Amino acid sequence: MMVRRIKWHVLPTINPGQFGFMPQRSTEDALFALIEHIRAEVRAKRVVLMVSLDIEGAFDSAWWPAIKHQLAARKCPRNLYSTVCSYLNDREVIIRYAGAECVRPTTKGCVQGSIGGPIFWNLLIDPLLGALEEEGLRVQAFADDVVLVFSGSSPETIARTANSVLRRVYDWGLDNKLRFAPHKTNAMVITKKLKVTPIQITMGGESIKMVTETKILGLIIDHRLSFKPHVADVCRKATAIYGQLSRAAKTTWGLNPEVVRTIYIAAVEPIVLYASSVWVPAVDQVGVRKLLDAVQRGFARKISRTYKTASLSAALILSGILPLDLRIREAAELYRYKRGEDIDGMADRKAEQRVSFLDAPHPALAPEVEFCCLEETQAETDAVEVQDDSGEGEGYLQVYTDGSKIQGRVGAGISYRRRGMEVRARKLKLEDYCSVFQAEMCAISKAIEDILKMPDMRVEILSDSRSSLELLRDRSSFNPIAFEIKNLIRRARNMGKTIRFRWVRAHVGIEGNERADHLAKDAALHSKLRAAYDGVPISTLRRKIRTRTLGVWQERYTAGETASVTKAFLPDVVASYKLVREEPFSALMAQIISGHGGFSAYLHRFGLKDSPVCICDGRTDESALHLVLDCPRFGRWRCDLEIECGMAVVETNLPTFVAKPLRRHFEKYCHRILADVLPRNGSNIKVKLK
Question: What rounded mean pLDDT belongs to the chain?
Answer without folding.
Answer: 91
